[in-house]
Amino acid sequence: MKLQQLLQIIILTGLVGVLGNNLAQAEEVFAKSEETKKIESSRKLAQSSPQVIKVTGVRLNQTDKGIEIILETTSARNLQVVNRSQGNDFIAEIPNAQLSVSEGNAFTVSKPIQGISEIEVINKDANTIQVKVTGETASPQVELFDNNTSLIFGLQPTAPTAQTPEKPAATPPSQESETPQKPTTSQREGDNNQPIELVVTATRTQQDIQKVPRSITVINRSELEQQTRLSRNLIEILGKSVPGLAPPTQSGSNFGLSLRGRNTLVLIDGVPQSTTRNAFRDLKTIDPSAIERVEVVRGPSAIYGDGATGGVINIITKRADTDRLSSKTEFGVNAALGELEEDSFGTNFQHTISVNEGKVDFTGNISFTNTGSYFDAEGDKIPSDPNAQGGFADARSINLFGKLGVNFDDYQRLQLTFNRFDEKQDTDIASDPTVNTIPGRQKARAIEGLSLDELPGNENTLLNLQYNHDNLLNSKVQAQVYYRNYLTRFFPFDGRAFASLGNEIIQSEVDSEKYGGRLQIETPLFDGEKAKLLWGADYFKEETSQIVSTFDGDVFDSSGGLVFSKNNERTWVPPLDLSSLGIFAQLNLNLGEKLVLNGGVRYENSDVSVEDFSTLANPDVNIEGGDLDFDATLFNAGAVYSITDNVSVFANFSQGFSLSDIGLSLRNAPPGFSVETLRPEPQKVDSYEIGVRGRWNKLQASLSAFYNESELGTTFTAPGTIIRAPERIYGLEAALDVKPSSSFALGGTLTLTGGEIDINNDGNYSALDGFRIPPLKLTAYVENETLPGWSNRLQALFSGNRDLFENNTSFGRRPVESYFVLDYISSIKLGAGTLQIGVENLLDNQYFPVVSQLQANDSSYSAARGRTLSVRYSVDW
């Protein structure tokens, strides 16, 4: 009853607000001119609808005639448009609609093509979107189109010598500013594939993706929500979507999910998620329901500092819509489709609320996920720690997210973001250690009865305060301070065969506390937007440690590997205090209409302080701590050249660096070792990349080739021994998207990577291990809107084989066999909401993920999930 009363109050309040708004506007009509009255009358007619239509994205796309403005909305055919021309301006007003995008709820682009000076899309008032296009010599000619996902303004610049047609394609003079126009479907079916996108990660400031000399993949909110119908694990979503990334691990760890053969730097709104003692849990720190989009920069980058030797994954969180109040609720269930085992059932609930009141806005999200057990295609339960890298089966997670923003004026905004992610694996499932004693390769076997006091899982708390001023002394300024508290706890590991692990059964956890700040200033140098300098500084301080619990081996053996009886707790990695300061400058030049150049430099200085400690191998030997200091200077340069309006090429040189995993070195320190003798020089990577991009009305394609090398690479063996040796990695990446009609789309990606290491530093290179270099990866999809409101998608992933090592039974060097997996995704409008269906591994193939095949022990050789069904229902209200 209370819920019903609350809903009635909300609805009543909304109706009163609408009526009050309409009455106030009615009073203004009598003071306006006759022509203006007609526009206002049309607007109010549309506004009488109780629901304001959201436009969730604005994109541009060049055509052979000019350029298109694409407004993304699921209700394009319900929008009404009032057009008029005024001097060189084309102005369209869309009543009963609101722009709700993450880039500040306004879209402005200067000189997108020759003949058009500016395009601006803004919220004119609380219920009206205004589209304004300024021509260089005259108002452009405009055609309107729509389909199920977009309202499209097709713009054709008016040439200086051309005669204006008597009836331009926009609005005939006799109808101008009088009657709301309903867009009609063009003879050219559908909108174009991948219009121009604005990204921030590659350059730290908003930039047209087509003008960035890097390979970038953007996964927007709709694509992310689509993929969560199969899995809520970002590791799997990105592995299936991003060229250059290794295939999904189907675990809770991104160990083995290399990007161009190296590690990635994971950010949340620019805040680093890494830890000094690398735990490879960076993508398990936030729920997808709190994410607006993910930008992936493929290839080394130093623009954010330490860690991005393979690239950058920037998770950008949601921001409030422009509606005064809006909400979305979703509930779902999932289960294995083999025999529908009861303990395979999982549930998910999430609710998002958005409030926008004048200059203050807020968005909040809460999600609960209850994950059941996983089963392979043969109907066998999969161990909860599938490949000794962490899992997420039998897990309970909660994510609390909030973002509060205040707009002081048109230029200044202060924003506070909070996110708390907590996931625990409350499971009684372990991996049977006896399979390691059976001759031949054996599939990991799940056994029930696990007794473990401290549950594996992840905890992440993030606070981020950001201030923006878009016109401070003619510069754009962004200042940011953040705090992060992080803990991850692993499954126990039987290390009795390793002296470096003290011949003990251990369970470790990594604790990290980090705070820092960023300041960046974008200053135009001359001639408007043709030359800009981005400069600033980053600072952070982190305290990290890793402790272990040890367990009674006799109890473990007598229980068959199920009971972990704790007998001691030790420090494995001593507390590390790391502070780092980086300063940078980046220059961007637009030389004419076809050539863009950029280049920059970054200097980083870091200090590490280590306390006295002892190792697991030598617990009675004290090792003296100390202080370390190291630095790095890195450069980058790139160029983009537009061969035609549809084809551009780019070339890029960039350097990235990462600090050596100091904690890993310390925990294996031999007697007589001292911190001062450690030489943790950063790994510096030189990367070279060339690529070509093509964009046409119904097709987008890209192809890039890269080569990167490092004189002091960083890899390690199973017990944690670090290898610092020269490395070189190379590969090809391609992507293709085709949209032959408004209801049909298909495409795919290719990732081919090779890599070698000179272990003895004698010029003789051998293949890098399989955790670093994945086999060939191919993805493909076909998508169809079968009926209005009902869409279906089939997507496939193929992972090839790789067998390059003579000693092929050791960690990371085992042969990898190919596999193929097909997924199905469907969405249908049903009642007030949307029903979403996902079937993972539709063909129920029995296969083993790459990271499982590379494990040395059979107890970690776990099969992938079999056919799994997910059903969800969501409502916007």
Entry summary:
With 877 residues, the protein is mainly beta. It is built from seven helices and 46 strands.
Q: Count the strands?
A: 46
Query: In angstroms, what separates the terminal alpha carbons?
Result: 19 Å
- Specify the overall morphology: globular
Give the low-confidence spans. Answer: 1-50, 161-195
Helix content: under 10%
Q: Which radius of gyration do the C-alpha atoms yield?
A: 28 Å
Biggest sheet descriptor: 22 strands, antiparallel, barrel
Query: Structural class, from secondary structure content?
Result: mainly beta
Strand content: over 45%
Number of helices: 7
**Overall average pLDDT:** 86
Characterization of this structure:
A hairpin with a 3-residue loop joins strand 35 and strand 36. The longest helix has 28 residues, at 2-29. By secondary structure, the chain is mainly beta. Residues 1-50 and 161-195 have low confidence and may be disordered. The strands form eight sheets. The chain has a 22-stranded antiparallel beta barrel. A five-stranded antiparallel beta sheet has the order 4-5-9-8-7. It is built from seven helices and 46 strands. Helix content is 8%, strand content 48%.
Looking at this protein, list some descriptive labels:
22-stranded antiparallel beta barrel, 5-stranded antiparallel sheet, 46 strands, disordered N terminus, 7 helices, mainly beta, 8% helix, 877 residues, 48% strand, globular
Write the SSE topology.
Elements: H1 2-29, H2 34-47, E1 53-55, E2 57-62, E3 67-72, E4 82-86, E5 89-95, E6 97-99, E7 106-113, E8 116-125, E9 128-135, E10 141-146, E11 150-156, E12 198-199, E13 207-208, E14 215-219, H3 221-227, H4 234-241, E15 264-268, E16 271-272, E17 291-298, E18 311-317, E19 325-336, E20 346-357, E21 360-370, E22 395-407, E23 412-425, E24 429-431, E25 446-448, E26 457-472, E27 475-489, E28 493-494, E29 505-526, E30 531-551, H5 553-558, E31 566-591, E32 595-610, E33 626-642, E34 647-658, H6 662-667, E35 683-695, E36 699-710, E37 715-716, E38 722-723, E39 727-741, E40 744-757, E41 766-767, E42 777-787, E43 790-799, E44 819-830, E45 833-840, H7 850-853, E46 868-876
Parallel strand pairs: 1-6, 15-18
Antiparallel strand pairs: 2-3, 3-11, 4-5, 5-9, 7-8, 8-9, 10-11, 12-13, 14-17, 15-16, 17-18, 19-20, 19-46, 20-21, 21-22, 22-23, 23-26, 24-25, 26-27, 27-29, 28-29, 29-30, 30-31, 31-32, 32-33, 33-34, 34-35, 35-36, 36-39, 37-38, 39-40, 40-41, 40-42, 42-43, 43-44, 44-45, 45-46
